[in-house]
Amino acid sequence: MAERSYPTLSLCMIVKNEEEFLPKCLESVKDVVDEMVIVDTGSTDRTVEIARAYGAKVYHHPWQDSFSEARNYGLQFATGDWILQLDADEELAREDAPILKEILRAVDKVPEVNAIFVAIHNIFKGGVAKHYFQRIFRRGHGHYEGIVHNQLVYDGYAATSEIKVYHYGYDLSPDRMERKFIRTSGLLHRHLKEHPEDTFSWSNLVRVYRSWKKFDKAVEIGEDVIARLREKMSPSHWQMIAYDTAYSHMMLGDLKRAEELCKEVLEDFPNNLDVLFTLAAVRMKQEKYQEAIETFREFLRARKEEYCRPKFSYLVVDSYGFEDRAWFNIGEAYRLMGQLAYAEEPYLLAIRHNPKMGLYYRNLAALYGHLGRTNDQISTLRRAREEGIEERWVFWELGFAYWKKGDLQKAEETYREGLSRNPDDPDMANALAQVLLDRGRIEEAGELLRRVLEGHRDHIGLLTTLGLLRAQSGDRKGVIEVVERVEALNPPQGVYKDLGKLCKAVGAWERAAELLERYLPGQPQDVEALSELAWCYAQMGRYRAALEGYKAAMNIDPRHPGIREGIRDLSRMVRKSS
After folding, report:
1. Contact (CB, 8 A) for 296 and 314
2. If DSSP codes are grouped into helix, strand and coil, which group holds residue 284?
3. I need a labelling partner for 312 at 20 to 30 A (CA). Which of 13, 365, 374, 497 fits?
4. What is the pLDDT of residue 151?
5. Residue 108 domain boundaries
């Protein structure tokens, strides 16, 4: 228990079926508080047993659909000088325990100060949100009001601090989040019927619907409250409602209204992180990429200022941990503008801020691939694996990068590892079969293809690779059979080029020409396909058509291999035939 030279501190909690989170919470404060007072509102799991194991005084009290009622019930049993209120899905940052005790000792000497704000860090999938809340108060000088999102009402003044409390209540399974949203929205609607001008509760209701991804409902309520109660809102309630409403407009595709709300907030609150980030996201969707870059950089400037000089605020800041997303989006904006060289640094900064996000590695690796920097592409994908990112695409793209580099052994090893994690993955099996063919292991590739095709008879990629295998074996009949099977599947237009090349490989010139002619209308600038078709025409004796094909290819890419020689040879043949 805590040293007696400091003011005494009582932990007060209300719980129900919290066996998953409670041990972590109590462990974080066991050496800070002098007593633990826990009100159980009907647990059927091991919650009470766990609480008592930590020495807590447990009181049973029936749930009456009011968080404040339950919290106030527990306050009567506390004996400490000060109260620390936590929820079971929260924990005190261990490194801040000594700071808490020193702040208590200092504030205890100031009778006018009866509450202390702490910094709540809400942990959720993909980020951290931050807000300040009065979680510490002098016993006998505070109580709770409100049936949900209860507020501490206290005498005198409050001190602010950066003591961190981590909240995991938004990092739950979809089913648990759904139940939480239903419960919270129901309580808020009930409260607002009795208090229709409570803008704090309206801001919480809009947030619930936005977080619930019921964006149409968030917009409906948000716009109504803005129209009716704008003049009665506190600055923080206005910013919260406007932000959640703007975000919901953006998600529904109404970018104009989203932008209007963001700009209106930023006129008075230019450093509002959530609104800056949302406005930047709107500009990305509007394809105003340069403006998006500028706004994301403004967000990063404001975020750095907040980090260096934290300022107390009543806002819940969703984008508190979004530096990585901002840098990633800056990289995306440069990429979408075609300025690939400028995208590299933002992608790298995104990874530095969040080295566990697979998408960042994937896009950086793709960038290096476009720039022809295969070694950097491989290094990026390998680092992703070192960070524990073992998604399918990592093996797929790393194997392809090794293949492109010419390291067929590494490509094979990578595809095999990917296939070992999902033996029924037809695309991975197809890539491995192609590498085996490139390594001259035709029988092994054939066995792999036959095995996988048993479960994926209509997989176009597998069938096309089977055709390649037969072409390498000189099996003209087998190739034509594969081509007919793929055609019957009505494949994407790009597949006809591959089929045409298969037929060309076994000397089926007319069939190859027919397939390439079906492909080219959709890709008239494909120099390789034009050259392949010209070759087929030449083998069929259609020299003038072949010459025109090579000339068309020459106009697109005069350096493409074989074009000049083809034009020279065919020009001679055409003159002879005239």
Report:
1. no
2. helix
3. 13
4. 86
5. 1-171
